[in-house]
Amino acid sequence: MQNFLALFGGVAAFALLVVGIAALTRRIFLLRQVAFPLVVAAAAAGFQVYLLVVARPDPSAVSLRNWLLAFLLIAVVLRLLGLYVFDVHLPARRGLRLPTMLPAVTMLVVYAIAAFVTLRASFPKLDIAPLLATSAVTSLVLGLALQPILANFFAGLVISAERPFRINDWIRLGEHEGRVVAINWRTTHLRTRDNDDIVIPNSRLADERILNYYYPHAMHLLRIVVGAHYDAPPYRVRRTLLECAHGIKGVLDKPAPEVYLLDFQDSAILYELRIWIDDVASSPRISSDVRYRIWEELRRAGIEIPYPMRTLNIAPRRRAVAEGESEGPPPARLFVAEGPDRGKVLPLGAEPRTVGRSRSCSLSLAEANASKEHLKLEWTSEGFRLTDLGSSFGTRINGAETKSALLSPFDRIAIGETLLIFEADHA
Residue ranges of the alpha helices (H) in 188-253? Predict the structure, then answer.
């Protein structure tokens, strides 16, 4: 009866201590870090209660208690050393923070080795060879039975060591895409844009190709394809698309946005706006905001986004010009492509037009290198002629210094840093 009471007292003491440790570790962070040594101490205390109550202690029970005390001392030292290495030395000195699973597995292996060493020292006559052989056979049987689980476990170790992705990285695996929120010993959890949680086995992550949008940095290139009408000059479309990228939340200024002309298709010219964003998780919202802006700015600039259709244009018959009657000028204009006044348009007609800094000019420029009355454009029987009005810094047409010249469609007129493009419709 006394032996039963001693056994009951020891088990009860161990159970009460474990419950107390579980309650304290939930509230105190430091105790949570040494939870395993505390459980070993609870087991040693339970054996001590048993030895105090039992009438004649068994020598093997005393040796077992001594083994627990020795293992407890070594476990405390190993745990403190592990805390220093994994939580202090590597993060502070080396700037390396390992995943949670790798330190846990390392400490488990170290505890197992320490347990066998102290067990052999406490029981010198104990032959652990059969124990190891039995453990090997048991491990083989369990390995065959738990092969999928073990595959996920070792894949998790490889992921923790190689770190192809980290917590909070945004990754894509096959058709699944999301933010990494947890890396466990068997599975990895992804949080999608719909706030759904996807649980992926680690073995699949080790076998398939992973696209990590956050490595080496979170900056991501976003491409938006837009079609514009053939009547819209490419430099106008380019300027409009570049302006659409400014002021959108999440779009980076550096690297600067770029516009590429992709293809000449049946109904439209395809352009690609390339912008850099700071978080791929926000790409649908950013892409939508940019497309809103593109529609508004193209509409404001008079640039049509054509439908996929074919249009039959019937050219009107040209009116015969009577003798002595001069033919009128075709629709034409000056478009300011670069400079402080970019985007301005000066319609041209039969009346002469002047360009300069003066407010009395037909096109008043804020260009510092422009004269008050810099140049004049007038319609002649040969076409539109540009004449420099004795400006201080001169006028360049297609890179050449010019005093007077007939203009051709898409000639580039440079006044200082301002670039004007001559546009003329077909007669």
Answer: 202-207, 234-244
